[in-house]
Amino acid sequence: MTIRMVATDIDGTILKYDGKFNPDVIKCIQNLDRSGIKVVLITGRMYKAAKKIANSLNITTPIVAYQGALVRDNSDDAKILYERYIPDETASKIINWAKKQDVHINLYMNDELYVEQENEFTRKYVSFQHIPFNVTPFDGLKLHDVNKILLIDYDNPDKITFVNKQLQKDFPELFIAKSTDFFCEVCHKEATKGDGLRYLQELYGIKKEETLTIGDHNNDIELLLAGGVKVAMGNATEELKTVADFVTDTVDNDGFVKAIDKFVKAGANV
User: Fold this and answer.
1) How many CB atoms lie under 10 A from the CB of residue 127?
2) CATH second-level architecture of 88-188?
3) Which of 17, 42, 81, 162 has its CA 20 to 30 A from that of 219?
């Protein structure tokens, strides 16, 4: 069956760890777009950060942000198409627990990033994503429309593994997954990348079998499962590779382009 949609993660999949694109990846994505194949960015990033990536690639399809908590038009009015929030009381419990574990907390509300202090973790995170942030004590902050909570420890990945497992056990009503060795993502249960993709598949009348999905980490498992052709990057986690139909090359070696060449290019003439 012909591929009509390519749903891709950003970091570690099309964007290298140094924050740069290989030129052939940009060319490949733009060729897909020109051929009429919808290229959808599906990411844990906030909408503001993902929109910059989409604009740099010259693609205008809706963006799936915060794993799948927010699907929003990439347009001037940025119409919200799909949204799921962490309940306020649950968000408060997560924050209080995380403080006791001494992990850094990124709190996202209404597509704004809040932190309690500007520290080395804050600076490293925002410098890579090129986004603004607000510094404020969470105790005095009214929680509402929480898109996502991101727990970070760049120095101790074992702590993030512990945090991820413990939160999955204590909060089965949420979607919780590692997106890198240093990040634990906390979202609404219906805010997976698969949820966001299925919304767009229904919106455009595109079948699962007509969708290629590609990613690199455990938070991409639901993304791959929502696709008909499931591709894991060469630099992907072993858990993701087990659900993939095909393991391509690494992000540094144009794994995205090689997957498109294998499954899309011949049929799409791109």
Assistant:
1) 10
2) 2-Layer Sandwich (3.30)
3) 81
